[in-house]
Structures
1.
Amino acid sequence: MKPPVLPCAPRRALVCATLLLGLAVPAWAERADRDKPMNIEADALRHEDQKQLSTFTGKVLVTKGTIVMRGARLEVRQDSAGNQFGILTAEPGKRAFFRQKREGLDEYIEGEGETIEYDGKADTVRLIRRAEMRRLEGATLLDQVLGSLIVYNNRTEVYTVDGAPTAGAPSAAPGGRVRATLVAGTIAFDRR
């Protein structure tokens, strides 16, 4: 079956979503991913041209090179300066997901949260509620961080983890504490 041809405004929305998700790549990402085409699949797309808002709903799947993102709903906004802000949310009781290969290594970064937010102006990625970030070598878990909120700043390559539950939602880590499992030879930490 041939995909439907989108009218001009929804095509612009798809381009906006493509740019947004392409910019959401952390600095540890596979460099070749930047030049790969992005594919977004969903059950439906709604674009509001006046608000510069595009909403993809229903089994949203995003692929771009080694990047894979999944969720139930992707909402993309663009301001007058061209900055984009996106929110990927999961189905109730589940978590949205992303995965990407690290540059020059047989390693992958995976992250999950009930909501994943990207702010193009601030260049940050936020994993919200029951947040988890993992580093894998092949299928072997090397590092894992759990908390209620994980914020990654692409410009500074710094991430922070908060273990305290947010808005009545439980933390991914038991007892509302940050939990980290790091590869041997590195410093282990725990938020006290």
2.
Amino acid sequence: MKSLSLLIIAMFLVSCDHGLAPPPSVEPGFGGTLYFEKGTWPSPDSLNSLWLFASQVYPLDSVKVVQGLISNPPTIYLYPASDKSLPFNVDSVSYSFSPPVATYKYVGVIQRFANDINVHSLRVVGVYATNDTPPLPIPVIVNEGVFTPGISFRVNFYKPPPQPF
């Protein structure tokens, strides 16, 4: 009888999971794939950096771009980081971006073609947007504990979207 009781208790203990433990935390953000149109990459001398950006403000003007990048906290976030770049001359790149929880009204890819960072050295080359003409940006909402996949879009250096600034 003792061995049967011990066996039942052992089976009970082995079969228990974590019970009411909180679910594993998920870093908030979004991700997807950037597709680069073949044959549209610019010459190396006009491609200094390439970033994915998420802006809480749209439309942008030159003052809002500079303020959004340098304000504390910023309203424009860059991926991978301001001192890094997305890879050049690829067909596509998958990304996982974790900006702070907020609504990002304008998400896209920006090309820097000069050494200094100012609105005269930046050009939007792709936007997460509708298929309308002109395309309308689709907001991306980053919620606490939620990662949103499938934020994918195309980049064409020869046919960039309308410039916001």
3.
Amino acid sequence: MFNIFNKKKFLIDYLKNLVDIHNHILPGIDDGAKTVDESIQLIKEFSEFGVTNFIATPHVMDNYYPNTPETIHEAFTALKNELKQHKDLSKTYLDYAAEHMIDANFDLILNESKILPLRKKYLLVEMSYLQPSINFNNAINNIGSKNLFPILAHPERYGYLHNSSKYATYKKNGIMFQLNLLSLGEYYGKETNKCALKLLDKGMYDFVGSDIHNMRQLNALKGIKITTKIADQIEPIIEKNIYNFY
């Protein structure tokens, strides 16, 4: 028998007014938007379903994307200036922080205050998808010593954690979790989707982010459909984004 409560709706229908705290829309400094024009295109597409508030979070990754507060601010300024030329995007709010890889260089930039927190309070961090960071626990402790709250980006994407008890341990240690919206579909694969739904069921997510890098990903996001149950689970998290970062 058909159950109306299992009828799926598009995920983007629930995202209006979301403050996107994880994205790669700043131009030319990582694997996200390559040009200012690409950045503008992404922002326009987001605005069509009601997302106009962004905290851009380019990668800070030693040997790959060795960004600094200066390089990130430069890209932010270039995009901010271009936005002024687009009256149809006048409601766009843009800020910047960074997504910090916990690598061999992380403790150095943390101790030298070369990190970029979200709202001067939360620090977005990630690990390699291949293996956990050797210095992860120490890095988390150091983040706390700086009176910052660590947010682990897309915990559902670390395959080596899927069958471990690490998630519960991380939460117990005060680490916040940020869900990638694309994980609510199968963009990253079935196992990532399965893990995301499991963590969602357990109420482990604190925030959500798009982690959008390009139009291909944004188009994939537009195509994701979710059940009423999932919608009910993510709506309070979206509200938490708005409350903490608007």
